[in-house]
Amino acid sequence: MSTPSEFHVGAVRVSPNAILAPMSGITDSVFRRAVKEANPGAVGLVVTELISIEALSRRDEKSLRMLRSAAIEQPLSIQLFGADPDRMAEAARLAADCGAAVIDINCGCPVPKVVKRGGGAELMRQSTVLAKMLRAIRRAVALPVTVKIRAGWDESLRNAVEVARMVQAEGAAMVAVHGRTRVQLYSGVSDWNLIAAVKAAVRIPVVGSGDIDSAHTALRRMHETGVDGVMIGRGALTNPWMFQQLAALRAGRVVTPPAEREVWQLIANLIERLASEVHPAAALGRGRGLVCRMTRGLPYSAALREMITRAPSLDAMLQLVRERAADGSPLSAAA
Question: Is 109 marked active-site?
Fold first, then answer.
């Protein structure tokens, strides 16, 4: 099966068709910029972490900051979550004013505090509410509206095909499908057969998500299912260069991992930017997580990871990371 290299979400061209997935607490502007810079020309769309429409309606400062972006992030999809169609429309207007190219409705978050309030994956069981949301947003803004869903709620309600057909009928410009149910959370495996069934059932672009752990996997999934694109989440957190590796595969070039120095330099840049934009304690916590995820597979890195995660301050952590970035060696882990 041939695989396209781009598609359109309304008037927005997604080229290439590899998308940085929304990840709560991860895909803020700092991380999105870093991924775009590490993969010049290889990321077709980036999506914000999910943003609460309830918080935006209160003009919560943290949530308003989450709407901010830089020019390099365009085209940018701003993902909203909640259960009230009117507030969803109000939040969409705010997002449009802040430079969104696409508005995305989160129907996939499995976290209890989100679903208990009627948002996220709960909308897989509330199709009438979801339909009202789509209508409200489309009346409020002229931007294309997309929906990110899961396979369903549980094994007895695997209704991704039906939900995809409904959102298409309500004017959604794209649907992204994560192949796990809400009950699965992130356990088990993503069901790409179901994602393929969604693709076969609708005319709008379908993007597949779940277990994209390498550029080879991304390309294979597109070949197998015919989806219009792939959405890369946790794979991009452990390997931010996956997008350019996918581009290399498509061009028939050998996929090579980054040098160890490049890995540590990216981490240093991320932590430095975080330090300038968020509270030092938050930057320290995020920095520890980035080091643990991004340095898996690097030779002789376990002891250094422990030193860095035990660093008593942001400055101490940065010093260790910068020293390693200045004295890197080739990374042995395969792409």
Answer: yes
